[in-house]
Amino acid sequence: MNTTQLTVLAIKYMREAKKESLQTVLEELHPYDLAELYRALPEKHHFRFLTYLTSKQIADLLMELEQEIQMEVLHKLGIEKSSKVMDIMDNDDLADMLSEISEEKLEEYLSAMHKDESKSVQQLMSYPPETAGGIMTNEFVWIRDYYSVREAVDKFKTFAGLTRNIYYLYVIDENKKLVGVVSYRDLLLADLNEKIEDIMFSRVLSVPIEMDQEEVAQLIQRYDFLAVPVVDEKNVLKGIVTVDDVIDVFIEEANEDIEKLSASGKSIDFSTKATTASFRRLPWLILLLFIGLITGSILDGFEQTLSQVVALIFFMPMIAGMTGNTGTQSLAVVVRGLVTNTLEKRTILKLVWREFKVGTMIGITCGLLVFTVASIWQGDLVFGMIVGISLLITLIIGTMAGTIIPLILYRIGIDPAVASGPLITTLNDIFSLLIYFGIATTFLHLLI
Amino acid sequence: MNTTQLTVLAIKYMREAKKESLQTVLEELHPYDLAELYRALPEKHHFRFLTYLTSKQIADLLMELEQEIQMEVLHKLGIEKSSKVMDIMDNDDLADMLSEISEEKLEEYLSAMHKDESKSVQQLMSYPPETAGGIMTNEFVWIRDYYSVREAVDKFKTFAGLTRNIYYLYVIDENKKLVGVVSYRDLLLADLNEKIEDIMFSRVLSVPIEMDQEEVAQLIQRYDFLAVPVVDEKNVLKGIVTVDDVIDVFIEEANEDIEKLSASGKSIDFSTKATTASFRRLPWLILLLFIGLITGSILDGFEQTLSQVVALIFFMPMIAGMTGNTGTQSLAVVVRGLVTNTLEKRTILKLVWREFKVGTMIGITCGLLVFTVASIWQGDLVFGMIVGISLLITLIIGTMAGTIIPLILYRIGIDPAVASGPLITTLNDIFSLLIYFGIATTFLHLLI
C-alpha cells in the first residue's frame, strides 16, 4: 500500500469513526511510514488523526518529523499530552526538538514531564548541537566488570526498554569510568557463568564529549562500529552515539558541502518557503553581483583595446567560463577529499603538485584546440595565439585557485564555505579577463 | 601513537628483524589503522612488512585498501598465499576486489581457493555492482522457525566466525524462503526454551536482489535498520546488506552528486594520478569549450550594437555570472532533494512554483540594485533600465533552467549527470547574453 492509498483509507476510517480499523492499519507501519502518512493528510484531519494514535505512536511520529511540523503537533496536543509523549521519546531526538521551543514554553513542558526524564534531557540540551554531546543519547545500560554474564543479561532484560538503538553494553568501574565494552554478540557467545571482565574488550575506543560530529562520524565509518561511547575529560561515560545518527551526519555534511559549492544558502529543501529560500540565497547573490560589477569595470580599462578588435569579445565568455569550470572541478576534488582524508603536509604538497600538472595538461590540450579554431575563424594566426596562450595560462591559474584557496582556508581554520563554487568562479572571471585582455593589449600592434 | 610514529617504529622493528615486537604493536591496530600504516610505509618495505603479517591481518588489510594498492599486495603475495588470504576475506569485499582482476588471473586465484568460498564469491560477482546483490554479503547464519532459542544460539555459536557484521539471524522455511527475523537482542531477552516462531518478527522487510544500491541505502536510513535481507523473485534469502556498507553508499552517492554539480569527472580523489585525472576531466571541459565558443559566436551577431555602446560589455560578466549562480543554486537544491525525497507530481509542481517565486523575488531585488548602480555609473536611466530588466528576466530564466532541466532528465530516466553544474551555467550564459543584447538592441535608439 503506497502513501496515497494509505491516506485515502485513513480518511475513510476517520470519517466513519472506526478507531480500531485504523489502529490495525497503523500497527503495521514503521515510524517513517507513519510520518509520511501524517505529512500527506490534509491539515484539517491532523487533529482527529492524533487523537486516534497511542502515546507511543505519537512519540514515534514526532521523532521522524521535521521541526516545523513537530511544533504543529505539540500545539495540537497541548502541554499535558505533549509531556506524556515526551517521556517516551528518545532523549536525543527530544533534545533536538526542544532546542527550537521558546524559553517559557520549554519550562512548561519540562515541568510537566517526569523528573528524571526532564533532568536527563536538559543535560543533553546543554551540549553544542554539532558535537558528540549534541548527537549522543544518554539512555544506555551500563554494567560492572565484576558482574557475571548472567547478571549482565538480567540487568539488560530489566532496562531493555531504554536501549532501542544500542548494540553494546558498556562496562564502568566504581568511579563511573569507562573500562570496557561487551557486544550483544559476545553475551550470546559466552557462558552464563563467565565474568564480564574476562569477556569484555578493554581497549575500547571512546570520543570526547566536545568532538565535532563529523569526526565522530568518520571514526564510526572507518572502524565499522555500530556505536561509540562518549566520555568527559575524566573518562566518565556520558552517552552513546549510534550508527543511525551517523548516517544522518554524513547526509547533513554532504548537503553542507554542496551548499558551499553552489553557494545555495543554508538548508533549503523541497519544503522551504519561497521567501525563506530567497532570503537565504540573496546575501551570496548580492555579494557575487558586486564582484561581477567589479569584473566588468576591469573591462572599462581595456575599452580602447576592445573597440579596436571587437572580435576579442567573442572569446571572452569561453575563456571566463572555462577558467570557472576548471576551478570548480578542482574545488570539488578538494572539498570531497576532506571528508575522508586527514590533511598532512605531505598530502597537501602532493595534491597541489598533482593539480598543477592537471592544469597544465588540460591547458595545453584546450589551448591548442582553441588556437586552431580561433585562427581559422578569424583567419589570423596571431589572434589564435593570443586566445590559445591566454586560455593555457588562465586554465593553470584557475586550477590552482580552485585547489589552493580552499586548502589555505581549511588550514587556517576558516570554514571553506567562504571558498564556495560561485565565489571561486567569480574570482576566476577576474583573473581570466585580466590575463586575456592584458595579453591582447600587449600584442595589439600585431593584430591591427 | 600517530601514523608517522607507527611507521618509524615498524621500520625499526623490521630492520632489527624483531617480528614479535612488531606483532605486539600490530595486534593493537584496527584494520583501518593497519591500512593507514601500509600506505605510509615506503614501497621498499612493503614486501617484508607483508611477510610479518598473519593471513588474517593481510585479509583485514586488503579489505581496507583501494583497488590499486590491493593489486600491488596480491602481486607481492603470489597466487598461493593470496588465495589463502582470500578464503578469509569477507565475500562482499572479495568480490569487489576480484572484479578488477583480468580474466585469466581470476581463474588462477579462484581455483587455488577453497571450493565453497570460490563458488560463493563467484555468485556474488555475477550481480551488477551498484545493486543490492552487488553490495550484499552471502555469508550469514539462517535458522528455522521450529528451532528453540537454545538451538538457534547453538547454531549461532557454531557459525559465529562467519557473521562479523550481521546483527540479526534470519528465519527461513523448508523452501529457503524468508519468513522472519530475530535480533541478537531478541535472543538475549528470550527464554532459552521459547520457540523461534514465537519470538521472531514476521513482517520482515526485504529488498529484491536487483534493487539500486541508493534505494537500499535510503530504506536502511529511513527505518534505522542495521541490516536488510536480500531476496530473489521467489522470496528466497540470498544475502544481507549491512549498515556499514550503506554508509559507504551514502558517501559514494554524495561524491557522485558533487561530481555532477562540478562536472569534475568520475572518482577523482587525492591519490588519483595527474594523467588519469586529466583524462577524466577533459571530455567535459572540451564539450564546455565548444559551447563557450558558440556563446561567443552569438555576440558576433550583435557586433553592431556592441561597437555602438561599448559600455554594454561592462555588464556582460555580471549578467552571465549571476544567471549561472542562480541556476547552480536551484540545481543544488534539486539534486540533494532527490536523495531523500520521492518525486511525485504534487512535489514537482510545488517545487517548480516555489522556485519561480524565488527567481522572481531574487530577480526584482538584484534588478533594482543593478538599475541603481548602472544608472549612476553610466549617468543614463535608460541604460540602467536595460541592464536591470535584463537581469530580472535572466535570473527568472536561470532559476527555472536550474530547476526544470534536472527534473525532466530525472523523470524520463536519464541520469541528471548530464545536467551538471557547468553545463547549466554554460547554457545560462547563452540565454542571458541573448536576452541582454536582445533587449539592448531593441532599445538601442534610445541610448544613442
Automatic annotation (TrEMBL), chains A, B:
Localization, UniProt: Cell membrane
Recorded topology in the membrane: Multi-pass membrane protein
Superkingdom in the source lineage: Bacteria
Pfam family, one: MgtE
Sequence intervals crossing the membrane: 282-299, 311-335, 356-377, 383-409
Alphabetic keyword roster: CBS domain, Cell membrane, Magnesium, Membrane, Metal-binding, Transmembrane, Transmembrane helix, Transport
Keyword presence, Metal-binding: yes
InterPro entries, alphabetized: CBS_dom (IPR000644), Mg_transptr_MgtE_intracell_dom (IPR006668), MgtE_transporter (IPR006669), SLC41_membr_dom (IPR006667)
CBS domain sequence ranges: 136-199, 200-258
SMART domains linked to this entry: CBS (SM00116), MgtE_N (SM00924)
Function: Acts as a magnesium transporter.
Assembly and binders: Homodimer.
Record family assignment: Belongs to the SLC41A transporter family.
Protein name, UniProt field: Magnesium transporter MgtE
Gene source species: Evansella tamaricis
